[in-house]
Amino acid sequence: TVSASGATETSGNYVFDQTDTAQLVINPATITVTLADQTKTYDAAGYGGSVTYTGFEGSDTAALISSGPSFSYTGGDASGVNAGTYTVSASGATETSGNYVFDQRDTAQLVINPRLLFAAIVGTPTKAFDGTDLAALTAANYQIWGLVGGQSLSVGQTAGTFDSAAIGTRSVTATLRAGDFTAGPGTSTANYVLPTVATGPGLIVSPPPTPLVNRPPTLVTFDTTPLGDPTGPADKLQVIDTETTRQILEQINAGANFCREFVQQEYAIDCLSDRLQATADGLSATGEYSEVKAALEDAARKLHAIAISNESPTLGQKVARSTSGPARSSSRPLVAVSDAALASANAAASAVIVNTQLVLLRSAANSERRRVAFQQVGQILGSTKVLLRSS
Length: 391
Hints:
Strand content: 15-25%
Largest sheet: 5 strands, mixed
Distance between the termini: 108 Å
Number of strands: 22
Structural class: alpha+beta
Strand order of the largest sheet: 14-22-19-18-15
């Protein structure tokens, strides 16, 4: 309320009636809050773009602001923290003088891009020479760079490859897929660009692989179905379990022993083909071992093809039969490889075995239970390479 007083005039002929009053209303001035768009890499924090204030009067400045605005988010997952695109709104700014109000209607766009990660193999994975380039890895063999502080990822990929199967200092490489990573507490893989490969130093040492255990094939009943027309108990082996895996390992091992003991070296490739096919015939095409069945059948076909393409012109086909213990025989006549082609054929057959091991390991990449079983099958399959002595 405004009152007047003290008016004067020069003539002395007048007096002033200054009893009137008026109402003066001073409204707060408006400070406009402006938000700048921000694009950043995931850092586990929200909006950090610049905020500007305009509209201060006279000598007043932003120093009067006692508290900046808080931010809310829409879009993305509405957290404003995880990777995504958000609309940012401001509210709650305050100032100390009481002479201003805030216009906080402005919005900004916040784009949070996933953070790029890098992986390396550490700990120098080491194995004894076995003629293959397969490397067995554990979670401790991986180091991840680029994670935001306090966050963690573990790697479940256990299959790697050495750059050579030869003894010596080697390089190890592992191919990584999204399913190979397990996020630790407070960590989301969606906030990262996951690495697809890891490399590091490894070592292959002596001695050469341990020979096959000379175990009598008494636990195995081989199918006598000819190659190319596999039939078998389709529902016999359905679910991954320790006993079924053991039976598969026994069959492959006993089959390899049979070929080693009762056939000449020239017949070894086709004998191994016959025994792998016999093992595959006992597996279901639709059960949890279906990939094992498919891998063994594919290896059997390829080994048989190698024998056929390198067939000896002098050694005829023959059925292999055991000469001691329970009667055993190959399910069909075996093809002999010529002496001249034996070394190269054995090398090609060895490559088939190695590739089949890799197929088995990759087939079980997303299941720990399958991985253990398939890795065991791959390992026993690798031991059959001792049959290919010229490779």
